[in-house]
Target: Chromosomal replication initiator protein DnaA
Amino acid sequence: MNSRPAGAGVGAPVNDDVKAEGNQEAWTRICRRLRSELGEDVFSSWFGRLELDGIADGSAVLSVPTKFLKSWIESHYCEKIWPLFESELPEVKRVSIRVRSSRRPSFEPSALAGGPPGARGAVVETSFAPSVQKIRPDPKIQESEKVLQNSVKRQIDFDGDFVNGSPLDRRLNFSSFLVGRSNQLAHAAAQKVASASADEPLLYNPLYLHATVGLGKTHLLHAVAHAATAVTRRVIYLTAERFMYGFVSALKAQTAIAFKEKLRSIDVLVIDDVQFLQGKSIQQEFCHTLNALIDARRQIVIAADRPPGDLESLDERVRSRLAGGLCVEMGGLDESLRIKILEARIAAAKQMHPNFEVPASVIGYVASAIQTNGRDLDGAVNRLLAHASLNGAPIGLETAELAIRDLVRTHEPKRIKIEDIQKLVASHFNVSRADILSARRTANVVRPRQIAMYLSKMLTLRSLPEIGRRFGGRDHTTVLHAVRKIETLATADGSLSEELELLKRMLME
Ligand SMILES: Nc1ncnc2c1ncn2[C@@H]1O[C@H](COP(=O)(O)OP(=O)(O)OP(=O)(O)O)[C@@H](O)[C@H]1O
Model:
């Protein structure tokens, strides 16, 4: 579930609510000032997904969805953010940014040997202070700042070379990609585009792959980039964030023309996580690049966590361009595919740890217990390996159960769309969806609208501004007000709270 603003929980004292609302208003002012200082594009690229989670004991906690954004904001914009906090919220003595969810741990068995087995899903957080004199040095924070400085340095070293693409992982290739019913179409299409020679007609352009987390999109994209490079085609693999950063940096350095030329001179452009593309002129540039490459018969391969039509933050033209080639969904991994992935990971681990033995019964148990995604299977093998090396004993079922218990979830949560919430709530309250999106303020429309906003915040990962936009272009403070209002009413009114539970269940089925 997405984080709610601190103090906004059901039954939170009214004073806390008022304070939290005041903080959110100050945060809105900070954002407004940042937007006017930096311009719309830079703001929406780097700050569009930055949220204020809450303020407590003089510490403000902000959050972003990726590590990259976190370190980028910390390294480039702290000095802009601090003074704004000082003037809008003088009681804040420290600001920290955390990553809302973690992504992509390595499957290299040796990589986990040094890390704690429970590291998956950890929140990455680093603090920085608005004014160094105001805080007592905290050794943990100093340590993490050092780590951050080093990582920022590496980032800069790398960023200088961004047009050559994001780094490719040599382990993510076609031979390590295991094929099952759910991904065979995506795999076949990826192989086809990767192995095509320059004079062959392009059958699937763009090739658009989509799936929920950890189902192998990035793996396939890296495989395409490796294979296309091997047939001597010029390939660039970029995450959407690298693309944004590359474009914004090129604009600043007045090298935008070189940037565009470089991108348009390649044979295969591979872009990952396109759902993160933000900013009007960045999207325009992206659309121009797509058009120029497609017209010049160059291959484009894209991955995202949802189909093109659901990329709400993208311009309609970009969405339709993306949907104009072959669009393939990669489904969940079935049990036989999960077994194959586990066997391959265990075999890879055995190369470095020859005594690592996992009986077939344990593999079968892990494959049936972990149904979520490849990343969790990697995590399971890492945990088994850690237990085996710590105990020096072969892995039995009991040890396996203990080792992976934090990874065992029965179902991947269903992805719920705001549109579905609006439709269900409208029909439940006997109004139309158009009423919910309209400016009408009669009581029979206002309450369902607030309930739909509340459910959108609770059941989707959309931010308050995004929800506001999807409800007829309303401001995020209206959404926040609706969420609080419904929480307060539901605390006092048992039948409303039951009704909300019922709607949630219907949406999650
Ligand atoms: N079919 C597969 N064969 C081999 N490994 C797989 C397969 N599917 C997923 N994996 C492994 O699962 C892990 C997660 O996959 P990957 O990073 O490609 O997922 P993703 O779909 O890009 O996820 P996200 O949307 O979170 O970026 C990787 O280690 C990947 O190698």
